[in-house]
Amino acid sequence: MIALHKSELLQAAVSLLYPAACSICGKNVRAGEYLCERCEAQLIRIVAPFCETCSEPFEGSIDHAFTCANCAHRTIYFEAAVAAHRGRGIVRDVIHQFKYARQIHLRHLVARWLRAAMDDQRLRNCDFDYLVPVPLHPARERERGFNQAHLLSELLSAQISIPSKCVLDRVRYTTTQTALDRRQRMENLHNAFRLRKNVDVRGLHVLLIDDVLTTGSTLSECARVLKRAGAVSVHAATAARA
What we know:
Blueprint: H1 2-17, H2 37-40, H3 69-72, E1 81-86, H4 89-100, H5 107-117, H6 121-124, E2 130-133, H7 138-144, H8 148-160, E3 168-170, H9 182-189, E4 193-195, E5 205-213, H10 217-228, E6 233-241
Parallel strand pairs: 1-6, 2-5, 5-6
Antiparallel strand pairs: 3-4
């Protein structure tokens, strides 16, 4: 946290000397903004019709709630996972800069997208007890230097006044999910998470927080652990849907 604090102080000092620039194209932007109007216009917001369970968009004329093929033939343990944007193009670039290039200040932009997901009717009327960030394995967190879900959960917590609490641990170092299909992802994640010692989620309504939803396997496995421990309901919110 000290290193993060110093980096932000440096960024603030630099901003006094140089105008803010778009994180993608470098064009000057207003203070406090991260994207210029042109780049902002390229973001793809997820709008209906989409799968009610995992937010997978559907290009068609469906005017009623539906469940996609990704969710229909497997057990999903969360009630709904809501994502704000498609994780393509600029959204993907920003998230990659944040996670892998240590552009930690971009968490504010990603958290802004995450906040937009909270306006979805599937989450809007829920009374959540905790925001719960999806954990990284300690070895991967040391390698990266931070857990992006934890940083986003803390920012969102400050905005919507719901406490953020780390109640899960990742106890197996799983191989990357990127190249795996849905079945392999589920097998890769089995028993990868556990409830932390001396944590009680019985009777609680939980909102899982992560940056990107791909197939939903990670979120579903986290939800399974939470429900097995007594959570009444588990929803999820992410900034993007791959």
